[in-house]
Amino acid sequence: MKIGIPRALLFYYYYPLWKTFFEEMGCQVVVSKQTTKELIDKGIKHSVPEICVPIKIFNGHVLDLLEQGVDYVYVPRMMEIRKRECFCPKFMGLPDMVKYSLPGAADKLLSSQIKSDSDDIAQPGNFLEIGAKLGKSDFLVREALKDAQRVWNRYRYIMKQGYTAAEALEILESKQSIEVRQHKGEIKIGLMGYVYDIYDEFVSMNIVDKLREMKVDVVTFEMYDERLLDAGLKHLRKKLFWTFSNKLLSAAYKFFEDDTVDGIIHVTAFGCGPDSLIGKVAELESIRCQKPFMTVRVDEHTGENHLLTRIEAFSDMLKRKHRAAKKEA
Questions:
Q1: What is the pairing mode between strands 109-110 and 263-269?
Q2: According to the model, what pLDDT value does residue 277 have?
């Protein structure tokens, strides 16, 4: 049985868990191809205009999997991984949007409601419904989740050593030994952004690699421990409603406090409501801390030259500032 997993949204955070789970239950996992302009156009065609770019991209990936002839497409209903917090409403309603928007998706939709009190979502209650639909026993589901949990914890451990999602996945699959990633750049930039904005190479135009080619070290929110991020907003009277937005905002505060971080770039997709809020908060914090901050807003029409020009100018400014500070010292 072929289970399709869209290469979009939380694929870059939970893929090793999902892949291991389905394979341990005897299924073949099929991943949609890399994002292309053609794929995005397919998603746009079946999306309402007002929806954010990541959802349009997700729709394109689902359509790609349907064209590949998979038996089911896995679309989880992400509800919460923290008490008194939730996911963006588009995540909570994603299975319904897919079911009623994309032709041929209704009969091949595989979904379950995901609720947890931590980032580790490998609890049986989140996946027993899937096992029943696939004709698998509860015992097999529980055993598969044990392996999935172990693999995902390893994946997160690798990220926390300073590796990106793509690097962590490569290390995980090759079973390489790891050590803390050494920073060799002239400056360091804190990259604010959801995993699906930063690691989709078409959307972000491979911003991480481009910065590294400019001799810039990059740090992202998923390189921090979850407990550290959870504690990072305790000074606020009230946290945001959305868990991953809280992660980004907490990481931003860490970037502003860290003297080794020279500047912050916020990568955001056009149409993201939560980002419009945390971006403004980060901008105000940058003024208070006197640390450079820039927003890069991308959509399906953003050109690579536009992005490259902006990050080159920003990194050059930071390098000049860094060199001047070293001379004064």
A1: unpaired
A2: 84
